[in-house]
Write a structure and sequence with these properties.
The protein contains 10 helices and no strands. Helices cover 71% and strands 0% of the residues. By secondary structure, the protein is mostly helical. It has 2 domains: 83 residues, Orthogonal Bundle (Rna Polymerase Sigma Factor, Chain: A); 97 residues, Winged helix-like DNA-binding domain superfamily/Winged helix DNA-binding domain (Arc Repressor Mutant, subunit A).
């Protein structure tokens, strides 16, 4: 999780709550990198990023009086950001499967190399292609599964950290991760089988 370079202080919160317009601007400038980082990690469509960012800040401003600590303010904002991204993913609903015919030539080559057992150093040079394919596969999952997989497997967050950010129970996170991994493995297997035929 990206931390803002400058932290929000209690005095700054009071200035924002009092309606100081310049304090509002500084507040957004300080928190923007944190909010944008969550959006980039969880939402695939860049066209949605500005709308979701505005929605997150709207929720933060509307709920500002509810923040009472003891967790750092930035953590409280992160939780709102994750929940907003989750809500946005749920609204999108369309999660088409990735079909073999949809893959680019580069993605097909990477898939061939993966199923052919090529060494990882060769795949490392195609990191961007692999990342794009992985992102497309993750986008086929349900919203909760996308959030959990990105946090657990891509960001290497612990279950406890995910609990804090989402408010979900440890068992819900673990079961969701297990289901998501099965779906991803099945998708990849389908693509590999199609590639071999």
């Amino acid at each position: 999780m990206e931390e803002p370079a400058v932290r929000i202080t209690q005095e700054h919160l009071e200035e924002v709550r009092s309606g100081d317009e310049s304090a509002h601007r500084r507040f957004v400038e300080i928190l923007y990198p944190l909010v944008r980082g969550h959006i980039r990690r969880h939402l695939r469509r860049q066209a949605d990023h500005d709308d979701v960012s505005q929605e997150i800040f709207m929720r933060v401003f509307l709920k500002l009086d509810q923040y009472a600590g003891p967790q750092p303010f930035e953590h409280w904002v992160s939780r709102i950001a994750v929940r907003t991204c989750y809500d946005w993913l749920r609204k999108l609903r369309a999660r088409p499967l990735v079909h073999y015919a949809d893959l680019s030539e580069k993605e097909l080559r990477v898939l061939n190399e993966t199923s052919g057992g090529d060494d990882s150093s060769h795949l490392e040079s195609r990191r961007e292609i692999v990342t794009g394919l992985l992102d497309r596969l993750i986008a086929t999952l349900k919203p909760r599964e996308q959030i959990v997989i990105r946090f657990l497997d891509l960001e290497q967050k612990s279950v406890a950290e995910i609990q804090e950010l989402t408010g979900w129970s440890a068992s819900k996170i673990k079961v969701t991760a297990m289901r998501a991994r099965r779906k991803l493995a099945a998708q990849l297997q389908t693509l590999e089988n199609r590639n071999l035929s």
